[in-house]
From TrEMBL:
<keyword id="KW-0001">2Fe-2S</keyword>
<feature type="domain" description="2Fe-2S ferredoxin-type">
    <location>
        <begin position="3"/>
        <end position="79"/>
    </location>
</feature>
<dbReference type="InterPro" id="IPR036010">
    <property type="entry name" value="2Fe-2S_ferredoxin-like_sf"/>
</dbReference>
<dbReference type="InterPro" id="IPR012675">
    <property type="entry name" value="Beta-grasp_dom_sf"/>
</dbReference>
<dbReference type="InterPro" id="IPR006058">
    <property type="entry name" value="2Fe2S_fd_BS"/>
</dbReference>
<dbReference type="Pfam" id="PF01799">
    <property type="entry name" value="Fer2_2"/>
</dbReference>
<dbReference type="InterPro" id="IPR036884">
    <property type="entry name" value="2Fe-2S-bd_dom_sf"/>
</dbReference>
<dbReference type="InterPro" id="IPR002888">
    <property type="entry name" value="2Fe-2S-bd"/>
</dbReference>
<keyword id="KW-0408">Iron</keyword>
<dbReference type="GO" id="GO:0046872">
    <property type="term" value="F:metal ion binding"/>
</dbReference>
<keyword id="KW-0411">Iron-sulfur</keyword>
<keyword id="KW-0560">Oxidoreductase</keyword>
<keyword id="KW-0479">Metal-binding</keyword>
<dbReference type="GO" id="GO:0016491">
    <property type="term" value="F:oxidoreductase activity"/>
</dbReference>
<dbReference type="InterPro" id="IPR051452">
    <property type="entry name" value="Diverse_Oxidoreductases"/>
</dbReference>
<protein>
    <submittedName>
        <fullName>2Fe-2S iron-sulfur cluster binding domain-containing protein</fullName>
    </submittedName>
</protein>
<dbReference type="Pfam" id="PF00111">
    <property type="entry name" value="Fer2"/>
</dbReference>
Amino acid sequence: SGAPVSFRLNGVERTIDVPAETRLSEILRDLLSLTASKVACGVGRCGACSVLMNERPVNACLVMAWQLEDADIVSPEGLDILPETRIVRQALSAENAFQCGYCAPGFVTVLVSLLRNDPDAEMSQIKAALEGNICRCTGYHSILRGAQAAAE
Ligand code: FES
């Protein structure tokens, strides 16, 4: 077991007391019922669990409770208030980018982060940003088209 950790989650200060090796993906989904971020591979290879940690995308399945002290975490639920999120979601849905949609929150999280840093991101930057996100349904053309439209 561990010591309590305090961090900010979607703008709200939280203190939780869980074993130090508890994964952020479990904290969000199981402890706090924030289920927008998904878990598919569980080992950092698919991006379904993407959240922002100190304004950068990370795989929540690889972040342990002990690493959260003083961190600023934004889960997909917390992205709703950002204008970039609406732009990204609209552009992706206009391209019918997703089929089952399980991977979508991870893609949206990474793309919102990219566009906040660089609203005019080029395709090469979009591809680099999405390198860690896997989609098993539609393939990537429609996702990349949507992402490019969001950056225009
Ligand atoms: Fe975390 Fe796949 S579930 S990267």
